[in-house]
Every structure is written in structure tokens, then in C-alpha cells.
Specification:
The chain is mainly alpha-helical. The protein has 8 helices and 2 strands. Strands 1-2 form a two-stranded antiparallel sheet. α7 packs antiparallel against α8.
Length: 233
């Protein structure tokens, strides 16, 4: 099977993203559980269909165990810096948001009750670990940072170096498309994923791999679930 795609690298990438987003949107609107299945399958296999004429496979999109040790070290280093800051920012946010006008909180947050901290793990936490890493994080990173960011980088200049990674237009556009892709479930606050997308994109450019970014992505999702259930029950 081949996809009739534009020859331009940028046009190809945007077309593949639009096809994937349309499929996910139709899935969520018709039968919500189907949306997640369509997303996972599309993220994993649309890049392969798009890249088959160039003999590109998952390793070309940064999904390989060849640099696993370096990827794990990157994951640990980024986690040690980012996660304490994230937890502190989360606590400040959930403490402050009840003071905001109700109209704002309804649009820009998913929370509807006053926070009260009591450490808990989400029910069926082990299942969430598998889901967030293998069903969500790895497929999303393969598609967005592995395929999309790489293909856009083929079309546009890489830009300036920032902490060891060259960040050009492809880096920014991928983060924007990642955020817009989350609006398949239309909730304005989901656009906030633009900010972690910048971290994931930087990790991809810094290491030429998606493994570290996928691990940070998966653990971030799990951390949010733990914090949500601990503060909001």
C-alpha cells in the first residue's frame, strides 16, 4: 500500500498529520474508544507508509535500541531537572486556580473541585503504566518527534544551537501541531501540551533519538495522574 503524498517534504509531513488528525477526530466523534485506537495505529504506521519510498523504517525516525544507554542517561538527567520543577509548578497552579474567575477556570483547567492533598495512586496503576508508555508516549513520539519533526527538518533550515540541539522552524511547527492534535478532544486547556512538546523536541534534536523523550513523556503523563488523584480524589 502506498500513500499518494506530495513530493515536498514539508507538504508531505503536513498532509500525513492532517490525515492522522482527521481519522482521530472522526473516531472520537463517532465512538470515543475508537479515537485512541486510531491514534495509536496511525502514529505507528503512517510514518512507515509515508517513508517506504525512501526505505525509511522506525530506526530512521529515532526508534532504536542502538543508543539505549545514552537515551536512559538523558532521561535520568532531564527528569532530575524537570520533574521537581513540574511538581512545584503544579502545586502552585492548583493552589491558585480557585482564586480565578469561574469562567476562566472552566475553560482553562480540567478541575472542578477545591484541591485537598492526600497521596494516592490511580486505580489500576500498573495498567496505566503500560498504557501511558506503550500506547500513548512511544507512538506519539514516533509520529511527532520521529517522523514529523524529522521530515520538516528535511525541508527547512535547522536554526541556532540551544544546549547542544539545533532548533529551527521544524522544532516549533512540530510543537504547534502536537498541541493542535490534542484538540481532537476539544478542551482548550489541552493546548498546554505545547510546552512539554518543546522539551520532547529538544531531546530529539539533542540525541537524534526518541527513546529519552518517550520515557519522559510517559512518566510525565503518569505523574499528572498521580498528582490529580492525590489532590482531587
Amino acid at each position: 500500500m502506498t500513500l499518494p503524498l506530495p513530493r515536498s517534504a514539508a507538504a508531505e509531513a503536513i498532509t500525513v498529520w492532517a490525515l492522522c488528525f482527521a481519522g482521530i477526530l472522526i473516531g472520537f466523534l463517532s465512538y470515543p474508544p475508537a479515537g485512541k485506537v486510531i491514534a495509536t495505529v496511525g502514529f505507528l504506521y503512517l510514518p512507515l507508509l509515508a517513508g517506504q519510498t525512501r526505505a525509511e523504517d522506525w530506526p530512521e525516525f529515532g526508534f532504536s535500541t542502538r543508543t539505549l544507554k545514552a537515551d536512559l542517561l538523558q532521561f535520568l538527567a532531564v527528569s532530575a531537572v524537570v520533574f521537581p520543577l513540574f511538581i512545584g509548578g503544579y502545586v502552585l497552579f492548583v493552589t491558585a486556580w480557585p482564586q480565578l474567575p469561574h469562567e476562566w477556570t472552566r475553560i482553562f483547567t480540567p478541575y472542578t473541585t477545591v484541591p485537598h492533598f492526600e497521596f494516592r495512586l490511580p486505580p489500576r496503576f500498573a495498567e496505566w503504566v503500560l498504557d501511558d508508555v506503550f500506547v500513548v508516549a512511544i507512538p506519539e513520539e514516533l509520529f511527532y518527534r520521529g517522523y514529523l519533526q524529522t521530515r520538516l527538518r528535511d525541508a527547512w533550515p535547522q536554526g541556532r544551537t540551544f544546549f547542544g540541539a539545533k532548533l529551527g522552524p521544524a522544532f516549533w511547527v512540530t510543537a504547534v501541531l502536537f498541541a493542535l492534535g490534542h484538540l481532537a478532544i476539544f478542551q482548550v486547556w489541552r493546548l498546554a501540551v505545547f510546552f512539554p512538546a518543546l522539551l520532547f523536541g529538544w531531546m530529539r534534536e539533542r540525541s537524534n533519538s526518541i527513546i529519552g523523550a518517550a520515557l519522559v513523556h510517559g512518566v510525565s503523563n503518569l505523574l499528572i495522574k498521580v498528582l490529580d488523584v492525590s489532590f482531587f480524589g
